[in-house]
Description:
- The protein has helices at 3-17, 24-35, 40-57, 59-67, 72-97, 106-134, 143-158, 164-175, 180-208, 217-241, 248-264.
- The protein is mostly helical.
- The longest helix is centred in the middle third of the chain and has 29 residues, at 106-134.
- The chain is globular.
Amino acid sequence: MNDLLAALLLGLIEGITEFLPISSTGHLLIAQHWLGPRSDLFNIVIQAGAILAISLVFRQRLWALASGWREPAHRDYLLKLGVAFAVTAAVGLPVRKLGWELPETVTPVAWALVFGGLWMIVAENLAERRREKHGLSGSELTWTVAVLVGLAQVVAGVFPGTSRSAAAIFIAMLAGLSRRENATEFVFLLGIPTMFAASAYALLELWLDGGAAGEAWGELGVAFVAAALTGFAVVRWLMRWIKHHRYTGFAYYRIALGFALLIALPPGE
């Protein structure tokens, strides 16, 4: 396949899967099995396209929070975003330095997809019961939610295939932010500084190691734009869709994909 077309397809896959709770890692693993592996720089850049997309989708919300920080509700929300990010950074950086991460090969990713799908089904049902029992009080953004969401992002980094959005959204729903749209918005807003910091750190490491030499910059640009445009469309669609639908369909899809990976691809790939 033409390298430019392959780069375009990978950018589209990143944009579609980064924010849906189905694991961009698992999908890129499948795609790169047939389209050919890509450099670390390529993977960092297409994720940067996703960061740009979500920043644009939530630009009005971000501006409202920043300009209205003197208001108690906005200040409280920003502080909880800050706590969640600080927890992710404080725990995630040592974990990364120690190399605590499963390899991005078929077996661990596939099982993470399967168990993650089962977790989503259980978590959403429990969150629904909590909301029915507690009403509006069952959908509060507490400090506990912020801390647990920060930790969930670290877990997703250690277990490729878990999906950062899935891990964080469903722990938020279980911990008290039981409305899907509220949990999703908080996790997506948190994803902006988290993904930006992670990408910048990885890019700095790569640059210092000389890993950017010989990159096909045209393909990189195509993939970046594709990821940004697709991610923008997907996030806007998802934020409307979840107001009236459950995440269960994504959970079943994850389970099916996980078993398909285990059957179709050799374990070491």
